[in-house]
Amino acid sequence: MLNTDKNLKLYYSIGEVAAMFDVNESLLRFWEKEFPQLKPKKGGRSIRQYRKEDIETLKLIYHLVKERGMTLSGARQRMKDNKEATVRTFEIVERLKSIREELIGMRDALNAFTYEDVEKLKEEIQKQ
């Protein structure tokens, strides 16, 4: 049986990882040279195989360079000097983004309610 759950994959190709981050494969290869923490496994013919740990490292690099606008040397130094604190900050930012998306969804759902919907809900509550 074919495994369609991407979370269960052990390795991802460079194309899959590039698509995850919406970047070119060449950028991932460049970051490998710039960040010693990023070391995907290389199979036959030097085909890169990214593990979950590599993807987590890439998330952090992407956050520092693309979202926070840090220079490569600044991001490299941040990851070298205080990776744990940087990871914690990144996780907090990601969680806040998730909460923001949930709140926007709730706001949109509330905005979709009409006066008639509210009146129907009132009637239903009064019947109970």
List keywords for this structure.
single chain; 128 residues; mainly alpha; Multidrug-efflux Transporter Regulator, Chain: A, Domain 2; two-stranded antiparallel sheet; 5 helices; 2 strands
Tell me what the structure shows:
It is a single chain. Helix content is 69%, strand content 3%. By secondary structure, it is mainly α. It has a single domain (12-127), classed as Multidrug-efflux Transporter Regulator, Chain: A, Domain 2, CATH 1.10.1660.10. Strands 1-2 form a two-stranded antiparallel ribbon. A hairpin with a 5-residue loop joins strand 1 and strand 2 (48-49). Helix 3 packs across helix 4. It comes from Prevotella heparinolytica.
- Enumerate the spans where pLDDT stays under 50 for 5 or more consecutive residues: none
CATH architecture group name: Orthogonal Bundle
Tally the helices: 5
Placed side by side, the strands forming the largest sheet appear as 1-2
Determine the structural class based on helices, strands and strand pairing: mainly alpha
In the CATH hierarchy, what is the class? Mainly Alpha
**Distance, first to last CA:** 49 Å
Strand content: under 5%
Number of structural units classed as domains: 1
Order of helices and strands: HHEEHHH
Q: Please state the oligomeric state of the protein chains shown.
A: single chain
Report helical residue fraction: 55-70%
The main pleated sheet reads as: 2 strands, antiparallel
Instruction: Tell me the total number of β-strands.
Output: 2
Protein name: DNA-binding transcriptional MerR regulator
Keywords: DNA-binding
Domain HTH merR-type: 11-81
GO molecular function: DNA binding; DNA-binding transcription factor activity
